[in-house]
């Protein structure tokens, strides 16, 4: 697979987590609180500006889901290895409201995540 491009989003930002399967995987299923290995790219919903990408670092990222933002904790379980999923995450499920001390606070975020292993 190659690095996905996040298209400029249209319309107003959703108030709830939006999960969209781009490719449905056929491997092991990610479990709530489980360990996952992913390739991902993240962009700002309004500006389309990319703020993070494991692809650009040239390596996958591995972490326990329970250490991640709520949008990932809710949006990755049920995904199967080999799958590609887009998550559109409102601020409450990402880095909190504006002024919460994170550079992405108050922003709706769009991630495209490839599940490598679960």
TrEMBL record:
GO molecular function, one term: peptidyl-prolyl cis-trans isomerase activity
Keywords: Isomerase, Rotamase
The EC number(s) this enzyme carries: 5.2.1.8
SUPFAM superfamilies reported in the protein's UniProt record: FKBP-like (SSF54534)
Catalysed conversion reaction: [protein]-peptidylproline (omega=180) = [protein]-peptidylproline (omega=0)
Top-level lineage group: Bacteria
Residues passing through the membrane, by range: none
Protein name per its UniProtKB record: Peptidyl-prolyl cis-trans isomerase
PROSITE patterns in UniProt: FKBP_PPIASE
Family, as annotated: Belongs to the FKBP-type PPIase family.
Classification via PANTHER family: FKBP-TYPE 22 KDA PEPTIDYL-PROLYL CIS-TRANS ISOMERASE, FKBP-TYPE PEPTIDYL-PROLYL CIS-TRANS ISOMERASE FKPA
InterPro entries in the record: PPIase_dom_sf, PPIase_FKBP_dom
Span of domain PPIase FKBP-type: 33-118
Enzyme class: isomerase
Pfam families named in the record: FKBP_C (PF00254)
Source species of the chain: Corynebacterium crudilactis
């Amino acid at each position: 697979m190659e690095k996905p491009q996040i298209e400029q989003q249209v319309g107003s930002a959703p108030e709830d987590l939006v999960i969209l399967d781009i490719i449905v995987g056929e491997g092991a299923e990610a479990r709530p609180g489980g360990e996952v290995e992913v390739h991902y790219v993240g962009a700002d919903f309004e500006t389309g500006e990319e703020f993070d990408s494991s692809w650009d670092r040239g390596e996958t990222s591995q972490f326990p889901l329970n250490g991640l933002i709520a949008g990932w904790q809710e949006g990755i379980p049920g995904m199967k290895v080999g799958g590609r999923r887009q998550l559109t995450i409102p601020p409450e499920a990402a880095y909190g409201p504006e002024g919460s001390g994170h550079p992405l606070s108050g922003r709706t975020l769009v991630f495209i995540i490839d599940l490598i292993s679960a």
